[in-house]
Every structure is written in C-alpha cells, then in structure tokens.
User: Fold this.
Amino acid sequence: MFRIGIGFDIHRLEKGRKLIIGGIEIPSEKGFKAHSDGDIFFHALTDALLGAIGYGDIGQLFPDSFQKWKDADSSIFLREAYRIIKEKGYSIVNIDGYIVLQKPKILPYREKIIKNTAKILNINEEQIFIKGKTYEKIGQIGEGDAGFAEVIVLLKKEK
Ligand SMILES: [Zn+2]
Assistant:
C-alpha cells in the first residue's frame, strides 16, 4: 500500500539569525525567526511524513511552548517522524519539494541539503528532489522578509 503526504511551512526572516535549511547553514544576512532553528524544509518534510500516515503534525508532537525546543536543531523532529513511519512499517519512495526564498539562491546548496536529508532518512539521494524558487518580488516573501517550503512524500508499506 502507498500513502502520500504533504507539508508546508513558513517563517519570517530577521537579521541576526542563522539561516538553516535542510540542516545546512547558508550564508545570509537574515535567518528564520522561530522557536526552533526555523528550518522550513525540515518542518514541511516532518509534517509530510507524519501526515502521510495520519499520525499527527509537528505542532502536536513538538509544541513550541516547550522550552526544550528553543533554537532546537530541527533534524530532531525529522528523525522522530522517520522513526514513527518506520515503526508503522513504512518506507520512503520519494520526496519532492520546493523552497521559496527571494535571497540567497538555494541552488548552490541544493546538493548539500539533499545529501544531508538522505543521510538522516537513510535513503538514496536520487529519492529526493528540491526546487529553489523566488516569489518574483511579490509581497513580504518577495521582499525577502519570509520564506516558505512545501514538500510532498510518497510512502510504501513494507509489511
Ligand atoms: Zn517551522
């Protein structure tokens, strides 16, 4: 049996924060303002994995009222979602997503993000694809004050 999941995440960008996407630090004058490290790609991916099996969502599992998650490395959330889908007998077929950011450009970091994500999820790099897009200067995202990510995953039940 196959199951599909979708996830979305958005955070504001502000000066003086590190820009972390897919667990990779990207040189930038602004980073995501969030309770955790604000990794939009890992947050959207975590939600997509949990959603695919109807388990819940990232906000339920890791409430941002928990002091514990302050500036947390979001790979913790992703690893936990992966542990849950494995426990339920699912494996990942593929992941496709996009990251929307006016600047900096995502493309030079795409390979690193894919590599890191594949490592965490114990899959091949060929099973993941990410597009980097801008928002054509429209609204706050287009002005570089926010960024968002959307991810879709396909899971297969192994047993
Ligand atoms: Zn988030």
Notes: Residues 9, 11, 34, 38, 40, 43 surround zinc ion (CB under 6 Å).
